[in-house]
Amino acid sequence: MSPLDYDRTHIWHPYASLGNPPPVHLAKSASGVEIELADGSKLIDAVSSWWCVAHGHNHPAIVDAVRRQSERLCHVMFGGFTHEPAIQLAEKLAAFAPPGLDRVFFADSGSISVEVAAKMAVQYQNALGHPEKNKLVALKGGYHGDTSLCMALSDPDGMHTLFKGVMTRHFFAEKPAIPTHGVWNPADAESLRTLLAAHAGEVAALICEPVFQAANAMNFYHPGYLREMRRLCDDYGILLIFDEIAAGCCRTGPRWAHARAGITPDIMTVGKALTGGHLTLAATLASAKVADAISNGSPGAFMHGPTYMANPLACAAACASLDLFAQGDYEAKVARIERQFTEGLAPLRGRPNVRDVRVLGAVGVVEVGRLPAAADIERVIRTHGVWLRPFCNFIYAMPPLVSDSRTVTRIVEALGDLASAPPGPPVEGDFHE
Ligand SMILES: *Cc1c(COP(=O)(O)O)cnc(C)c1O
User: Fold this and answer.
1) CATH of domain 3-58+329-420
2) Angle in degrees, CA 161, 163, 169, rounded to 5
3) Which of 35, 45, 266, 279 has its CB surrounded by the most CB atoms within 10 Å?
């Protein structure tokens, strides 16, 4: 059996059937913006391998940091031990994060960091004598991960409806509709206000992906919405959680997408680009107010602790990645990609299958009536040598932030070709990312 045949018959891929698996490419190596396949051909990674690879694949500084750390200490349990990479990373994260979010919990994936954020909010309310405040309010169109609590906070009509039976019911406000650069109107948050007026007494926290709802909606919304959230949280004694896993680390321009709103959350999750896409690591950052209340409550301990918590190799990778963010002018890099996407994708408006074109930072989205057929998608990928992974009715690119203008030009051409392909057959169910 060839390795690819073994893969087809034995290994699940994300959101894929094992009985009728979609084709996969055999990756051999990767460097910079390109992935090299077993047959020697190369694809530009216009998806940053699910939005992680900010500085390019196998970045020498990150690879070197991991190699050096691996020679000393690959892992040690974080219960009863600590180590330099974790301490350094906590300090670097505190410097990189907005002021006041300097208490850190290291998680092993984005989903876990969201679970941790939600548990912090519940323990916080409990410590303040409000055990009844144990629900969260999330936004329709949102996505927060695949574990059960995260699914329960993601769009209720999205891809997780199958698991409704095992999920706790939380509250959902309508998807924010005013675009990032539109004119703010408080009416956009009316459903949130109504919901809190009725249920604030049961609510521990509000959670959202600030400004950029990624995996479920590819929606860029107005920072005024976040200011409204902050105000409501303060009024009702509710915590504000920003999930910056997709939007953070300069993806939309500023380090953190919520910086546009000029307010800070009480808890923030960071993942994806944290290690520059080299190892899995996420973090939940909290304010002293949150940490102190939890510590002064009962049991005082924060009740979470994954086996691979603060893995030293992952922490070393993240330290090197944050150094790159601190040294390089990533806002300027992203602004350049944004300009090129804005100019390059504008002509696609008005094509028969195109419903909308929108760009924010290093995110370019072409919303179509229906995605092209799988064979057409594969043809465009191969012809242009550009890896794209459209989902639902979104053809999009989120390239490495270090992509040069020639790379972005090739990505824009591939997106244009894909957006011009005939719509394919309707697809059953939703596809993730
Ligand atoms: C990807 C993502 C997650 C989940 O992260 P994983 O590392 O896949 O568990 C959570 N929130 C947002 C906003 C994401 O984009």
Assistant:
1) 3.90.1150.10
2) 80
3) 45
Residue whose structure tokens are 């959680």:
241
Does 277 have pLDDT greater than 70?
A: yes
Average pLDDT over residues 247-255: 98
Q: Is 341 in the pocket of ligand 1 (CB under 6 A)?
A: no
- pLDDT, tens only, 375-420: 999 999 999 999 999 999 999 999 999 999 999 999 999 999 999 9
| pLDDT higher than threshold 50 for residue 425 | yes
Q: Contact, 258 vs 242, CB < 8 A?
A: yes
CA distances in angstroms from 62 to 54, 269, 314, 315, 333, listed in the order given: 12, 22, 10, 11, 19
Pocket-testing residue among 209, 272, 308, ligand 1, by greatest number of atoms within 8 A of Cβ:
272
* Closest residue by Cα to residue 141 from 341, 377, 394: 394
Nearest CA to ligand 1 atom 5: 110
Spatial separation of the C-alpha atoms in residues 69 and 62, rounded to whole Å:
11
Of ligand 1's atoms, which has the minimum distance to the CA of residue 280? 7
**What pLDDT sits at residue 432?**
47
pLDDT digits (tens, 9 = 90+) for 121-154: 999 999 999 999 999 999 999 999 999 999 999 9
- Ligand 1 and 114: CB distance under 6 A: yes
| Start and end residues for every CATH 3.90.1150.10 domain found in the chain | 3-58+329-420
pLDDT band at 428 (very low <50, low <70, confident <90, very high): low
Predicted model pTM: 0.97
Cα(95)–Cα(97) distance, rounded to whole angstroms? 6
Q: Tell how far the Cα of 246 is from the centroid of ligand 1, in angstroms.
A: 7
Ligand 1 atom nearest the C-alpha of 215 is 15
**Ligand 1 touching residue 246 (CB < 6 A):** yes
Question: From the CA of 145, how far away is ligand 1's center (Å)?
Answer: 5
Catalytic residues: 15, 143, 243, 272
**CATH 3.40.640.10 is the classification of domain 62-327:** yes
Q: Alpha-carbon distance 170 to 267, whole Å?
A: 18
Q: pLDDT tens, 25-47? A: 999 999 999 999 999 999 999 99
